[in-house]
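We now fix the convention by which a protein and its fold are recorded. Think of the row as the fold of the chain written in a discrete alphabet. Here is one such record, which you should read through line by line.
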Amino acid sequence: MVVSGYDKDAYGRLLMNYWKGDKEAMAIFERDDGMVQHGSCTGGYFAEYRNWPKHQREAIRLASGRVLDIGCGAGRVLLYLQSKGQEAVGIDTSPLALEVCRMRGANDVRLVSLMKIDASLGKFDAVVMYGNNFGLVGTPERGHRWLKKMLRHTTPRGRIIAECLDPYRSPLPEHREYHRYNRRRGRMAGQARIRVRFLWTSSDWFDLLLVSEKELENIVQNTGWHIGRIIETENIFYVAILEKD
């Protein structure tokens, strides 16, 4: 039975079901070229710090002061920072995900998209975007505008810790074909249009921007930010540490 107001919150329903004991809960991701793919283990959204990937454990050390966690999901970053005595604010567009955060002990979570960040949230010393959440900017143009906007919502020493997925590192032919499909449509190769499905629930379609380090550098140019450091991995992910010019 669909609950009114939550009928499109597939991601949040996934997290809620897992939290309530369904350890087999797994999302389905559908792409606009027709590809359908099962997600990875949902337990990763609830992982404690010791079980995070090495690059995430390394990068989070740079999240000092007051921190904004964009796409906070089940709250793993928030809970870790709170355990260190830091003030952390989480934002997400999933109402059910925020309910899970609160039930797990997150102090401050709000239903806000990254494009709707405003002065009511205050200013932050660090912004964390784990789980490829930099990709939520959707398009290179929106990413450029968002970075310029975030100059106002961060302190002079503010930094953005952006985990990204490099689409060109994937060896799978179906992804390379999708890159060509995107280019024929005048889109960036890694500009994926997807939706999330879980049980009877489907999210709206949205753009998720997957960028190489060079493409990210082009987006960042002339925004008031620069890439201060890249933390590499042995897989398709990397973390870019963005600092103010």
